[in-house]
Amino acid sequence: MDTDDSIQLKVTDNGVGIPADHIDRIFDPFFTTKDTGDGTGLGLYVVHAIVQRHGGEISAESSGSGTTFVIRMPKSAAAAPTS
Ligand SMILES: Nc1ncnc2c1ncn2[C@@H]1O[C@H](COP(=O)(O)OP(=O)(O)O)[C@@H](O)[C@H]1O
Ligand SMILES: [Mg+2]
How far is CA 48 from CA 36, 37, 58, 70, in A? Predict the structure, then answer.
């Protein structure tokens, strides 16, 4: 979705979904449901940090049949922090 100030990108998969008691933790560092050695729990943490540093927002909604990630990014670089 395109507005004057921002662009919104939605990506939906058809995977297993994310349980309600996990969805608030998926952006936390080291949160993973994968086996030791398979997952680091850093993927979404890093994505969240990058989006935030550019003045954007990311969120996730999920059901039992898939997950939708919504990213909103400002068009203006002025919204991004300088450090
Ligand atoms: N598209 C997805 N569908 C279902 N679960 C997901 C999805 N993306 C992330 N998750 C859940 O969030 C957790 C954290 O993801 P991530 O930060 O990428 O770390 P990792 O992939 O190393 O586990 C995953 O272990 C999984 O439980
Ligand atoms: Mg990952």
Answer: 22, 22, 6, 11
Domains recognised in the chain with CATH numbers: 6-79 (3.30.565.10)
User: Which pair of tokens denotes residue 81?
Assistant: 């922090």
Q: How far apart are CA 16 and CA 69, in angstroms?
A: 14
40 CB near ligand 1 (under 6 Å): yes
Residue 81: the pLDDT is 63
Alpha carbon of 43 to ligand 2 centroid (Å): 5
Which has more pLDDT, 28 or 82? 28
Q: What is the mean pLDDT of the chain?
A: 93
10 close to 68: Cβ distance less than 8 angstroms = yes
